Amino acid sequence: MTDTEWWRPARHTDRRPALLARARIQQAIRAWLEAEGFIEVDPSALALSPGNEAHLHGFATEAIDNDGARRPMYLHTSPEFAMKKMLAAGETRIASFAHVWRNRERGVLHAPEFTMLEWYRVGEDYTALMDDCAALLRVAATAAGSEMLRYRDAECDPFAPPERVSVVDALREYAGPDLFETMDSGGEPDRDALAAQMRAHGMRVAADDTWSDMVSRALVERVEPHLGYGRAVILDRYPVPEAALARRCPDDHRVAERFELYACGVELANGFGELTDPDEQRARFVAEMAEKQRVYGESYPLDEDFLAALSIMPEASGIALGFDRLVMLATAAPSIDAVIWAPVP
Questions:
Q1: If you count DSSP H runs as helices and E runs as strands, how many of each does the chain have, helices first?
Q2: Hey, how many other C-beta atoms are within 10 angstroms of the C-beta on 44?
Q3: What is the H or E stretch that residue 259 is in?
Q4: How does strand 230-231 pair with strand 154-157?
Q5: Residues in contact with 22: Cβ distance below 8 Å, sequence separation at least 6, in sequence order
Q6: 13, 221, 293, 343: which has the fewest C-beta neighbours closer than 10 Å?
């Protein structure tokens, strides 16, 4: 019997306690969302664009119209575009447990199909989402009957207030480079300046590495392994080039209102003060797709409806949380597949 044969009765018996905990956690989160005044919505999974981030990969399909005409479509990588259109339409607090699909992702923490909990607050600062995250860690642990979140040999107290640290400060502490020394006042990056700092601190730099490539490597290799041990960490204020959908911080235009939540060294959530300027959003998408074309030889279309909706979308904050990963940590499961009822073969 292999781990992939989840339908074997003996294997299901082993998996069932974590799956039942998953159901309790989802029920408890739904109750919390309702108490907070959220409406649960159900965005469609088929989209004109799966998302426009360079290193995000969608599953492509095709729609055949009644007249036989064929149109390219994608399974969404996030319900974000659809949910922001709902905000433009007039909704103010919405949430969704959405199945999403991401290609080129498979591993202990990655499944090609998984459940994303996404929610939005109109007229509220993105720091409100940080409070939401702290509350949901408590809700999940309580529903699972767990005093601690666990992954491998790491533990995190879900009832302790999360620590908040900026990306720039975290990189200085754990990796060495000072990103502010490699950016101008408007946030434009200097690739060569960062490459020199990376090498000076013992990190590899490839000839074709972009500034963003180097930042990502430093975060993954030097920073993430330190985050969320003992208590959760909110990694805040990402550089603008690393925050394609977030608005700039009003006090420093080099960084944006983006944060990620970590527990036990695992990224759980990605939150934003949402960008609502359609012209700036278009420019960022075009740059992201140019980079995708350069690296992978493909790009995705822009959702023009989404860009049009941004022009009337109110100021809002929004966040996506990997629900399966949260269940993993709350049940001390060894992998993401262990908490998915029917894992993708």
A1: 9, 15
A2: 9
A3: strand 252-263
A4: parallel
A5: 327, 331, 339, 341
A6: 13
Is the separation of the CB atoms in 253 and 187 below 8 Å? yes
Q: Which residue has the tokens 């599953």?
A: 59
Report the candidate in 100, 97, 98 with the shortest Cα–Cα distance to residue 58.
100
Place of tokens 């600062």: 125
**Calpha distance 21→188 (Å, rounded):** 46
Q: Which of 211, 206, 207 is nearest to 194 (CA)?
A: 211
Q: How far is CA 51 from the centre of its chain?
A: 12
Element (H, E) at 164: strand 163-166
Residue 333 token pair:
């499961």
pLDDT at 265: 95
**Cα separation of 100 and 115, whole Å?**
6
**pLDDT by residue for the chain (345 residues), tens digit each?**
346 789 999 999 999 999 999 999 999 999 999 999 999 999 999 999 999 999 999 999 999 999 999 999 999 999 999 999 999 999 999 999 999 999 998 999 999 999 999 999 999 999 999 999 999 999 999 999 999 999 999 999 999 999 999 999 999 999 999 999 998 887 889 999 999 999 999 999 999 899 999 999 999 999 999 999 999 999 999 998 888 889 999 999 999 999 999 999 999 999 999 999 999 999 999 999 999 999 999 999 999 999 999 999 999 999 999 999 999 999 999 999 999 999 998
pTM of the model: 0.94
CA-to-CA separations, 92 to 41, 43, 85, 134, in angstroms, rounded = 12, 15, 11, 21
Is there a contact between 47 and 303 (Cβ–Cβ < 8 Å)? yes
* Burial call 93-121: b when 16+ CB within 10 Å, e when fewer: bbbbbbebbbeeeeeebbbbbbbbbbbbb
Only one residue has tokens 């629900």, namely 323
β-sheet bridge partners, residue 139: none
From CA 39, how far away is CA 93, in angstroms rounded? 6
Place of tokens 């990502």: 216
Assigned token pair, 263: 């527990």
74 forms bridges with which residues in the sheet? 47, 60
